[in-house]
Amino acid sequence: MFQGTHLKYASLVNEITIMNTVADSELNLQNIVKVGVGSYPTEFFGGDFSYSFQPFPAIENINNQNLVARLLNPLIESGYNVLIRDNSILDFPSFQIVIPGFSEIYAYSLFRMKEKRSHDKVRKIMRNIHSASNEELSLLAVYIQYKKNYYNENSIPYLFGLPLKDKFRFGSESLTFLLVLIYIKLDKLTEAIKYIQIMLNILIYSKTTEPEDVTYLRCLRDYLSARMDNKIDKEIIGCFSKVYPHKILKEIIIRFKDNSKIFNHFFLKSNCWDCKNCELSKDCDYLKIEEIYLQIKTLKKNDPIDQSKLKVYFQNFQTWST
């Protein structure tokens, strides 16, 4: 539970719920499996148990083969298939065990396939966001809102589908700021202002927030409101010059005056897979990962699965050692 986090600290980011609809939701279960954060049923912490606890059998003087048998026999007896591969290709003993219907974080339904297809589209849009059409940006906005509470999937690097260093402005709220930029580009200023206010409501209570970021967002919010009132830049400067620092006000007017160029000020242009000519290359670890990945793939190619060898690993699975 909590992926090893002490209850004292886990309670800061987790919730206890009496509502089964919350605890059993797909979103909640996925977040708990991935990062150990979510809503846990009150029964987990109650004093009564629906069954008596049986301690694990002693495992002293049991070899590795029988340890694996102890783990897998109950699953085999329950009707699960067990797929195993000897992955000791890096000069240390290692085995990959997959149990279809048990190992997966996601249930691979038709809906999941459609979701993956949507992510493929989103990756292409993000990597070409400077030239994205309004239709593509609208799709991106819908996808961001859908994924906003999915841990490990609610970040700009995930949208890119690249191993990027997460240096995007406003930290944990960088994805919401991307929504703000999208709605400004689409000239939906009411929506942009709504998400700026959501960011402010979160950032003003964060101990890691830079005061200048809060001022920047407030100035941007008021600048967009003034634009909705059809005020020109001279009027805006006259209204806000005594309220906001001149440097911030000037920067916002320059960056947000022309909606068509808005992404140029916040995102470098990607050029996958020509890394040498890609503006993102300094903050992208793709080449490093590719080198390691190709080495492992070569090792696997030279070490094909040997069914007769695997038979040795399986021969004692039906023997429950005590």
Short description:
This protein has 14 helices and 4 strands. With 322 residues, the chain is mainly alpha-helical.
Note down, in words, how this protein is organized.
By secondary structure, the chain is mainly alpha-helical. Among the domains are: 44 residues, no CATH class; 35 residues, no CATH class; 100 residues, no CATH class. Helix content is 49%, strand content 4%. The chain contains 14 helices and four strands. The chain has a two-stranded parallel ribbon with strand order 1-2. A two-stranded antiparallel ribbon has the order 3-4. A hairpin with an 8-residue loop joins strand 3 and strand 4. Helix 10 packs across helix 12. The longest helix is centred in the middle third of the chain and has 18 residues. It is globular and about 80 Å long. It starts with 6 loop residues before the first helix and ends in an 8-residue tail after the last helix.
Mean pLDDT: 87
Low-confidence stretches: none
Query: Helicity level, as a percent range?
Result: 40-55%
Shape: globular
What order do the helices and strands follow? HEHHEHEEHHHHHHHHHH
Rounded to an integer, what's the Rg over CA atoms?
Answer: 26 Å
Biggest sheet layout: 2 strands, parallel
Task: Indicate the topology.
Elements: H1 7-10, E1 15-17, H2 20-23, H3 26-35, E2 39-41, H4 64-77, E3 83-86, E4 95-98, H5 110-127, H6 134-147, H7 156-160, H8 174-185, H9 189-203, H10 211-228, H11 233-240, H12 246-256, H13 286-301, H14 307-314
Parallel strand pairs: 1-2
Antiparallel strand pairs: 3-4
Helix pairs in contact: 5-6, 6-8, 8-9, 9-10, 10-12
